[in-house]
Amino acid sequence: MPETGSITTEQLRTWDKRHVWHPFTQMQEWQRDEQIIIVKGEGCWLIDTDGNRYLDGVASMWTNVHGHCRRELNDALKEQVDRLEHSTLLGLASEQSIILAARLAQITPLGLDRFFYSDNGSTAMEVAVKMAYQYQVHAGHPERSRFITFRHAYHGDTLGAVSVGGIGIYHTTFKPLMFETLQSPSPYCYRCELGCSRASCNMECITALEELMTQNAGLVAGLVIEPLVQGAGGMIVQPAGFLKRVRDLCDRYDILMIVDEVATGFGRTGTMFACQHEGVVPDIMAISKGIAAGYLPLAATVTVDKVYSAFLGSYSELKTFFHGHTFTGNPLACAVALKSLELFQKDNLLAELQPKIAHLKQRLNHFKALPHVGDVRQCGLAAGIELVENKESAAAYPWEERVGIRVCLEARARGVFSRPLGNTIVIFPPLVISNDELDFLLDVLHESIRVVTE
Ligand SMILES: *Cc1c(COP(=O)(O)O)cnc(C)c1O
Fold first, then answer.
1. Nearest to 232 by CA among 262, 197, 205
2. Are residues 320 and 331 in the same domain?
3. Which residues, at least 6 apart from 11, have a Cβ–Cβ distance to it below 8 Å?
4. Considering only CA atoms, which residue is closest to atom 10 of ligand 1?
5. What is residue 421's DSSP assignment?
6. Which of 42, 106, 103 is nearest to 70 (CA)?
7. Which of 448, 383, 378 is nearest to 413 (CA)?
8. 146-150 and 182-184 strand pairing
């Protein structure tokens, strides 16, 4: 077993079960099963201690862009580590964080030029929420303290991020610890809570959103939204034009628009950022997952001059944004992020993505015919296949049946690693995936769905 040195797979499994508490995992079940231990990555593939290969169907939790162990990224990291591994942004500036912010400013929507670094999506959203409220205070509107959110939204797992989230199963337990928000209907067309269908839709959910804004006029600090697609909520794709209408309403009611591009940023939807599809410029934007190509934790909350300049003043005015994380602007992560941006250009990645997105779209059609596929949703190189017990009534499988998980276990036995969102099967591969690999991924998922649901 050369990959793990002198430590056997069995020993690793024992220690894992004894010492590692896995995220979003029922550890009692985890303890019972024989777990796969990954030791190596190559392109879109993960390799375990026994040499088995798995196609990384979820881009290692939606982070991987250019594949695993991409030589140029590895070299950039090695080069940086020999120069400076970390120095703080509290009281000092650092080279890589400066260059990265300047480069990102060139590709983020116009005016989003001020970068506040942190290290993950949740913290980027915490920063966004606190920044938005403190902005209102500085603008003379401390009464504007409410936030508008959407049902089925996911913005991370720290308490502020949970407060602006809307996924019952993750969030209900913590309700006593959360702050209240104004929750608007999700544009979940397959299960429209306003009783509309895609054919009859007049974006009644936008009307509901406007009502919420009218009822709370002058009391709302910001609106928080995942652009184009609610990811963790089940790859819920918004109708075209939805985001633009949200932007217009935020303008009309003078509400800061906070766009969570943590999952959608860095090419996932076919443009660098999802809000660019609709020409939307948010007031605050959170970016993370793909920013450092899946190599290292890095995030930023990006804002416009209007927000940034409201925080300027003499120290005694106490307008300082009192927030910060220890590893803010880590040079290693920034160096990889910079190289990743270079690879986007060098590989012409966004252009190369378009035929893959079309290919995925065409291949997804085959899934619609399956008797237990209720809905197929795609946004760029991300897709969700919602499995249902009854296709006519759209009756969901009881969650206890763990249909999504069972499909993913079948897929794993066939060489694909995937992770479902409830009964929705997720397709979210590294952006560099080839058409052949994409075909393999889809063939395996198709077969796995068939085996489990028929
Ligand atoms: C993953 C995700 C987050 C949270 O990011 P973490 O790095 O896991 O804290 C926030 N928002 C969206 C849209 C995400 O997909």
1. 262
2. yes
3. none
4. 155
5. B
6. 42
7. 448
8. parallel
Give the 3-state secondary structure percentages of the chain, helix then strand then coil, rounded to 5: 40, 15, 40
Q: What's the length of the chain?
A: 454
Last residue of a domain, one of 346, 365, 389: 346
Whether residue 414 is found in the same domain as residue 312: no
CA gyration radius for the chain? 22
Give the CA distances from residue 295 to residues 70, 113, 370, 394, 417, in Å, rounded to whole numbers and listed in that order. 10, 24, 37, 39, 18
Structural domain boundaries, residue 212: 75-346
What's the 196 CA to ligand 1 centre distance in angstroms? Answer: 29
- Residues near 315 by Cβ (< 8 Å), separated by ≥ 6? none
Tens-place pLDDT, residues 240-274: 999 999 999 999 999 999 999 999 999 999 999 99
- Cα 62 to ligand 1 centre (Å): 9
Question: How far does the centroid of ligand 1 lie from the alpha carbon of residue 156, in Å?
Answer: 5
Mean pLDDT taken over the chain: 96
Best mutation site among 155, 157, 228, 295 for ligand 1 pocket (most ligand atoms within 8 Å of CB): 155
CA 288 to centroid of ligand 1, rounded, Å: 8
- What is the best residue among 226, 288, 296 to mutate for testing ligand 1's pocket, by most ligand atoms within 8 Å of CB? 288
Q: Is the pLDDT of residue 99 over 70?
A: yes
